[in-house]
């Protein structure tokens, strides 16, 4: 029993320490597009906003994917096409990213695994420029805010997770 617990602890700690990486880096055999995708990483885990991010690059088009669940409980909510995802940096600069499509919550839609998969959430997709990607890879993210159909939610980003976010952007840059 003791060995089983130690083995499980080792596996868990290894999965938490290997960090961000490129999970896709290939040329699509049907379209000829070059596709790069980072791993999903936690941006924040708060009761009012829990979110995950990844970057995706298809040829020269760059996207930020943002999955979220909120403190709204089981209430259904949506985020409109064109709605703004706000990032506030430690130097107080505010970056506005635009959601590309209307999104409605689904069960488990804001998570990447079992944790929280019973709750409602959604995924936003924001197309970003090379200049914005460079900024995201250099500046320290301090806070995030999302406007939804029933109000806005925001949460601070811990320093360690802000560094992970910058590393994700550097993988695609």
Q: How would you summarize the topology of this molecule?
A:
Elements: H1 2-17, E1 22-27, E2 34-38, E3 41-45, E4 49-58, E5 61-70, E6 78-79, E7 84-89, E8 94-98, E9 103-104, E10 106-107, E11 120-128, H2 130-138, E12 141-148, E13 151-156, H3 159-172
Antiparallel strand pairs: 1-2, 2-4, 3-4, 4-5, 5-11, 6-9, 7-8, 7-12, 10-11, 12-13
Helix pairs in contact: 2-3
The coarse silhouette is globular
Unreliable stretches: 4-18
Total DSSP helices: 3
Total domain units = 1
Q: Can you give the mean pLDDT?
A: 88
In terms of DSSP E residues, the strand content is 35-45%
Distance from N terminus to C terminus (CA atoms, Å) equals: 46 Å
* Structural class by sheet pairing and helices: alpha+beta
Percent helix, as a range, is 10-25%
- Give me the strand/helix succession: HEEEEEEEEEEEHEEH
Profile the largest sheet.
7 strands, antiparallel
How large is the radius of gyration?
17 Å
Number of strands: 13
């Amino acid at each position: 029993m003791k060995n089983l617990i130690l083995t499980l602890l080792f596996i868990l700690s290894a999965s938490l320490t290997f960090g961000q990486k490129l999970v896709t880096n290939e040329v699509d055999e049907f379209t000829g597009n070059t596709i790069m995708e980072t791993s999903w990483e936690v941006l924040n885990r708060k009761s009012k906003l829990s979110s995950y991010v990844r970057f995706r690059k298809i040829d020269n088009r760059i996207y930020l994917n943002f999955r979220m669940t909120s403190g709204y409980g089981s209430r259904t909510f949506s985020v409109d096409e064109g709605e703004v995802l706000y990032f506030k940096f430690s130097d107080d600069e505010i970056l506005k990213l635009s959601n590309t499509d209307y999104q409605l919550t689904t069960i488990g839609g804001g998570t990447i695994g079992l944790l929280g998969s019973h709750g409602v959430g959604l995924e936003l997709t924001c197309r970003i420029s090379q200049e914005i990607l460079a900024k995201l890879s250099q500046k320290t993210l301090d806070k995030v805010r999302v406007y939804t159909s029933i109000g806005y939610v925001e949460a601070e980003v811990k320093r360690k997770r802000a560094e992970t976010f910058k590393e994700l952007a550097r993988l695609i840059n």
